[in-house]
Amino acid sequence: MTEAPRVDGLLLDLLMAVMNSIDVWSAAAGDPRRGLAWRDAATARMAGAGAYVPYEELVADAAGDVGLPRDAASALVERWSAMEPWPDAVAIARLSLPYGFVTNCSTSLALLA
């Protein structure tokens, strides 16, 4: 039997595993389907960028990919501080190992979330 690998810490995706960013994207887009498509379009742009592109620029450009105006990104940022954690995120504080959060969004938006 193989011994389980030792876990020295845990990294959690801030905007998906900890915070319910989906509701914020959906509200800014006007409906859940378009909000998810917009978030996915921003993620695809990020993955394909090859070099750093500011998050807010990716989000504004991705808005057009789903038929939203570029300024929809401003509506998203305005709602960002209203983002709520997932109900089970409280379990993170009970971990008996070090943990940290990772994210692709800007530092300023990560601090708001």
Number of strands: 2
> Any idea what the shape is?
globular
Q: Would you identify the regions where 5 or more consecutive residues have pLDDT less than 50?
A: none
Structural class: mainly alpha
Number of helices: 6
Helix content: 40-55%
Series of secondary-structure elements, N-terminal to C-terminal? EHHHHHEH
Give the N-terminus to C-terminus distance in angstroms: 42 Å
* Mean pLDDT over all positions: 92
Strand line-up of the largest beta sheet: 1-2
Report on the biggest sheet. 2 strands, parallel
| Strand fraction | 5-15%
Q: Can you characterise this structure?
A:
- The chain is mainly α and 113 residues long.
- Helices cover 50% and strands 7% of the residues.
- It has six helices and two strands, in the order βαααααβα.
- It has a two-stranded parallel ribbon with strand order 1-2.
- Helix 2 (21-29) packs across helix 3 and helix 4 crosses helix 5.
- The longest helix has 17 residues, at 32-48.
- The protein is globular and about 55 Å long.
- The chain starts with 9 loop residues before the first strand and ends with a helix.
- The relative contact order is 0.23.
- The mean pLDDT is 92.
